[in-house]
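[INFO] parsing input record for Demethylmenaquinone methyltransferase
[DEBUG] input buffer:
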Amino acid sequence: MVDDVAGTPGRAGARATLAKRRSDVASMFDGVAARYDLANDVLSLGQDRAWRRAVLEAVDARPGERVLDLAAGTGTSSEPFALAGATVVPTDLSLGMLRVGKQRRPALSFVAADALQLPYADGAFDAVTISFGLRNVEDTAAALTEMRRVTRPGGRLVVCEFSSPTWAPFRRVYSEYLVGALPRIAQLVSSNPAAYQYLAESIRAWPDQAGLAARLTDAGWRGVEWRNLSGGVVALHRASR
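[DEBUG] output buffer:
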């Protein structure tokens, strides 16, 4: 649990690289924790709320089910599952994010853990979901395999992640936004603007919809499908154990 873990705040200006070393990623998110939710809302032009609703519908958590919410951050994505009657376990690598989350949502049971070494039994969850976090994991294949391990047979996976816009002219505009406008806007709203340089880099290096679907299939997930959100800026991938 987050209350039992000691740690230090992230360094000002800390940012990860595309090597995605776990210590760098954790420190970077520690540094953006205080204003993370605000920054997401501004930088996504409010679209993050619609994306969270789409995740909630895709997971379709029922009362009594157990849901693992990985890369849960401050618990913004976890809270709707609890309100739906499910037992949700918000899990994140960043202690700074978890501490902010615990202050804002004390009813949630936050857990500090690494997606590559989850502290849960085989088949412990009915559903596993991760929003905008798989891209930041050091080893995507190992993380997907570990998620599959903790999902019960017949259980489901929902991955919400940045992807590739489907309309070519908009794809170019979006790429220019990532490189130029996003870091400048982050300077106004984020407690660690340097982290958003990494955000832009990691989005541009991430596979498109079909590429991520192939990775899910390679990790043993079945029935992989995806749905584009906001014209493919974000893609929602679903699969079953």
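[INFO] Residues 67 and 88 are 5 Å apart (CA to CA).
[INFO] shutting down worker
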